[in-house]
Design brief:
Layout: E1 3-9, H1 15-26, E2 31-33, E3 42-49, E4 63-71, E5 73-75, E6 84-87, H2 95-101, E7 107-111, E8 120-121, E9 124-125, H3 126-131, E10 141-154, E11 160-167, H4 173-184, E12 188-198, E13 201-202, H5 209-217, H6 226-229, E14 235-238, H7 240-247, E15 264-268, E16 274-281, E17 288-294
Parallel strand pairs: 3-12, 14-15
Antiparallel strand pairs: 1-3, 2-3, 4-11, 4-12, 5-6, 7-10, 8-9, 10-11, 12-13, 15-16, 16-17
């Protein structure tokens, strides 16, 4: 059994817990996930099973979230899990004010991750340091936010905004909530988060833990084939003889003109079977097709 699982992580489970559950259910040791999701968050968690774990770095990088942001409240963790820092009435805030400043948060921006996060500083994760009383402000980093879309506005003393976020890797939605609250002068924290897309997988087709359990009991669980999960990558098809040579580690010129430094799906020409990932390597004697990962 090898391939990808479009898994729906529930609230309260860590990404590591989800991987452990899939290991126990399938009896397969080699299981990994693509893109950590905070325990309080729910939604899409791509899980790779078997040798497909080596393909996780090649999944599409884009992610999408639906976030509920509560204004008038700040916490130590920038979500409801942390201790309250400040609280104030924000009932004068309007959705029009928020919408007007959202473009400031779109595009390629500098973002400071939350002090409670999995980022490592001097070999230690920030949340471990914070639990020891050492709150370290991490350095800012460049992230890309493609689009922010207002979905719902709930007025009140501590109003809540439902916001859809389409972003690149490394973006912290908690930081968006915190920075938006700072920008508007009310403070804000993340109240709820759903990841609706990750690694090319969409929440509308995700499987819950109960789904996976039931399908395995019925022996009807079908993993997503790597050829489908990686269809965003260009493909190169090899005749059967060359495909065998490539799988054995032999190097030879490509059968078509391809640019260097670009990962390609290698397919077996007769039936389209996915064989692995290759990349063109320039050498003095000419370009060769080098195996990056053989499935």
């Amino acid at each position: 059994m090898q391939g990808f699982l479009n898994f729906y992580k529930p609230q309260g489970m860590s990404s590591h817990d989800c991987v452990g559950a899939v290991r126990r259910l399938t009896g397969i040791r080699k299981v990994g996930h693509g893109g950590t999701l905070d325990p309080l968050a729910e939604g899409v968690l791509p899980i790779a099973v078997g040798r497909a774990t080596r393909l996780l770095p090649y999944l599409p990088e884009g992610k999408a979230y639906r976030a509920i942001i509560r204004f008038g409240l700040t916490t130590t963790t920038d979500d409801l899990e942390g201790e309250m820092l400040t609280q104030q009435a924000a009932d004068r805030l309007t959705v029009e004010e928020i919408a007007a400043c959202l473009p400031e948060f779109e595009g390629t921006i500098d973002q400071v991750p939350p002090a409670f996060s999995a980022i490592q500083v001097q070999g230690q994760r920030l949340y471990d340091l914070a639990r020891k009383g050492r709150v370290v402000t991490p350095p800012s980093r460049v992230v890309t936010i493609h689009q922010l879309t207002v979905q719902h506005w709930q007025p009140g003393e501590q109003p809540e905004l439902t916001l859809d976020v389409d972003c690149g890797p490394g973006t912290y939605i908690r930081s968006i909530a915190r920075d938006l609250g700072d920008r508007l002068g009310t403070g804000a924290t993340l109240a709820h988060l759903i990841r609706t897309r990750s690694g090319g997988f969409d929440s509308s087709h995700s499987l819950t833990l109960n789904d996976v359990t039931n399908l395995l009991e019925k022996q009807t669980l079908e993993l997503v084939d790597p050829a489908i999960a990686l269809e965003h990558l260009p493909a190169i098809a090899l005749p059967a003889e060359l495909a065998l040579r490539w799988q054995q580690g032999q190097k030879f010129p490509p059968t078509m003109v391809i640019p260097p430094n670009t990962p390609y799906r290698v397919l077996n020409e007769p039936d389209g079977t996915f064989l692995g990932i290759a990349q063109l390597e320039e050498r003095e004697e000419g370009p060769i097709l080098k195996a990056k990962m053989v499935l």
